[in-house]
Amino acid sequence: EDQVTQSPEALRLQEGESSSLNCSYTVSGLRGLFWYRQDPGKGPEFLFTLYSAGEEKEKERLKATLTKKESFLHITAPKPEDSATYLCAVQTSWGKLQFGAGTQVVVTP
Amino acid sequence: DVKVTQSSRYLVKRTGEKVFLECVQDMDHENMFWYRQDPGLGLRLIYFSYDVKMKEKGDIPEGYSVSREKKERFSLILESASTNQTSMYLCASMVASRYEQYFGPGTRLTVT
């Protein structure tokens, strides 16, 4: 059965304290792994797509990496505005995404 | 930029009412999706559509139906709203070549 597990569930960081979020997956034939950011009461905002092991994508303080079994979202020198829930999803069959439960990140000044 | 809009941010309905949630995208995407998001359960796919008048059931279609009469518009219908359909409803539109889904702002539906 396809599964996506994110850890930790919650992360509290001081401003400037870098950290990583984990997304491990079990899926028969990965067609894409996606990272989203979601602010409270809003829809998920697309961040990155990764298609194959070894691939990396960067955007400002965020960097996503992919191996054959997991993906990491690294947050470098975070700021309070990086506080959000980060969602990972894998494409299990055409167009269908399996989402993880998310990691809630709080960055304090 | 992809823009996905949803007809209401907040909606309060009574049990038994028929509810329409509308979603519009401006990027000429063929593929559109409806999800619901609940604490502890994450995002779950209700229905999706890969073309006008085409629809496919997702993981939790019971109690819902959809309509896609025009390419840019995808509607979710609750035939007879029940309290267990109180949730955040999210619409998404997909870039088919990259499988990237872009979400609308969501509709927080409360059924009393």
Summary of the model, kept short:
The complex is a heterodimer of chains A (109) and B (112). With 109 residues, chain A is mainly beta.
What does this structure look like?
The complex is a heterodimer of chains A (109) and B (112). Chain A is mostly beta strands and 109 residues long. Chain A is built from no helices and eleven strands. Chain A has a single domain (3-108), classed as Immunoglobulins (Immunoglobulin-like). The relative contact order of chain A is 0.33. Chain B is mainly beta. Chain B has one domain: Sandwich (Immunoglobulin-like). Chain B contains no helices and eleven strands. The mean pLDDT of chain B is 94. The A-B interface holds A 31-32, 34, 36, 41-46, 49, 87, 89, 91, 95-97, 99-102 and B 4, 31, 33, 40, 42-43, 45, 48, 50, 58, 90, 94, 96, 98-106, 108.
Secondary structure layout plus pairing:
The complex is a heterodimer of chains A (109) and B (112).
Chain A: E1 3-7, E2 10-14, E3 19-26, E4 33-38, E5 45-50, E6 56-59, E7 62-66, E8 70-75, E9 84-93, E10 96-99, E11 103-108
Chain B: E1 4-6, E2 10-13, E3 19-25, E4 31-38, E5 42-49, E6 56-57, E7 64-70, E8 73-78, E9 87-95, E10 100-103, E11 107-111
Parallel strand pairs in B: 2-11
Antiparallel strand pairs in B: 1-3, 3-8, 4-5, 4-9, 5-6, 7-8, 9-10, 9-11
Features:
heterodimer; A: 109 residues; mainly beta; Immunoglobulin-like; six-stranded mixed beta sheet; five-stranded antiparallel beta sheet; B: 112 residues; seven-stranded mixed beta sheet; four-stranded antiparallel beta sheet; 0% helix; 56% strand; globular
CATH topology of chain A: Immunoglobulin-like
Order of helices and strands of chain B: EEEEEEEEEEE
Tell me the quaternary state: heterodimer
Low-confidence stretches of chain A: none
Using the CA coordinates, give the radius of gyration of chain A. 13 Å
Q: Which CATH first-tier class of chain B would you pick?
A: Mainly Beta
The CATH superfamily of chain A is identified as Immunoglobulins
Low-pLDDT residue spans of chain B: none
Radius of gyration of chain B: 13 Å
- CATH class of chain A, please? Mainly Beta
Decide which structural class fits the backbone of chain A: mainly beta
The domain count of chain B comes to 1
Distance between the terminal alpha carbons of chain A, to the nearest Å? Answer: 41 Å
Write the CATH homologous superfamily of chain B: Immunoglobulins
Distance between the termini of chain B: 37 Å
User: Any idea of the CATH topology of chain B?
Assistant: Immunoglobulin-like
The total count of helices of chain A amounts to 0
Main beta sheet strand tally, sense and closure of chain A: 6 strands, mixed
Number of strands of chain B: 11
Shape of chain B: globular
